[in-house]
Amino acid sequence: MKLARRTASLTGSAVLLVALAACGSSSGSSHSSGTGTAAAAGKVSCPKGGTMRMATEPFEDPAKLTPAFQLVGKSLGKALGCKVQTSIVSDYSAEVVAMRNNKLDVAEFGPLGFVFASQQANAQAVASFGDSTGKLSTYKAGIWVPRNSSITTVAQLKGKSLALSSVGSTSGDAFPRFALRSAGLKDSDLKLTYAGGHPQSLLALKNGKVDAAEINTQQLATATAAKQFDPSKFRQIWTSAPIPNDPITLRSSLSPAFKAAVTKALLNLPPSDIAKLGALLDVEPAGPLVTVSKTTYQPLFSLARTLGLTAKDAG
Predict the structure, then answer these.
(1) What is the DSSP string of 177-219?
(2) Among 148, 183, 203, 220, which is least packed by CB within 10 angstroms?
(3) What rounded mean pLDDT belongs to the chain?
């Protein structure tokens, strides 16, 4: 997800999402291990000689993302009795290729990225991020204008400038462009610019560089909490339907027993570890992970078909 950090003021959910989300360009890896009772009892056969490989794209500053991601790996290692190798890969496509070539066992993808990871690598969604009530957390895309702007509808963006996040972003590209189509506009009817990320899109609007900009609920919460954005000076002219948060996926060729064990471990991450993730990433703790499946993300599959998107568009 070529996104800014998905922070908690959203729906009380996003702590683990931050630990395992998508975007960016740096990379790194680490290892952690555990001696969980399942593996010790011989009930779980860890892949590739006892090592489980999991990855994410570095949408967050690696200085924060790396220890958070390692924490998740360590927790899973303890539960499964497997050594866990955690990697921050270069980009979405590298993650898909690695899973397709059986070099990656667990991966988190953005909602739109999952559409193509499912199609190209048969990635299987098993868990996502729950809120404090135990329900799947969501976020929304939005389009904002200055408070004193004469623009009140998406259709009125014709001939105007609109800052989007980055190519392939679920809330920062696909959903706003779908809003344009729904309003009868083509991309060529206005000046579209890709700012490079959600923070940059917000800043383009704040600094008067564009007439309108996409700002999703997560970035809005982050910037507002940091006093970098005053919503009272701006106005939202469009918001999307709720978007389910990122799925954590498994390689389909893993054994059914191991996939079941990993899923159980994800859904039962200790509350203490969730709290530690919140401290590492400066967000509030959230609820446990919840079960998801491909069906959960069917609206994203439909969106991709409607916009004629391909894997290249998931960037």
Answers:
(1) HHHHHHTT--GGGSEEEE-SSHHHHHHHHHTTSSSEEE--HHH
(2) 148
(3) 82
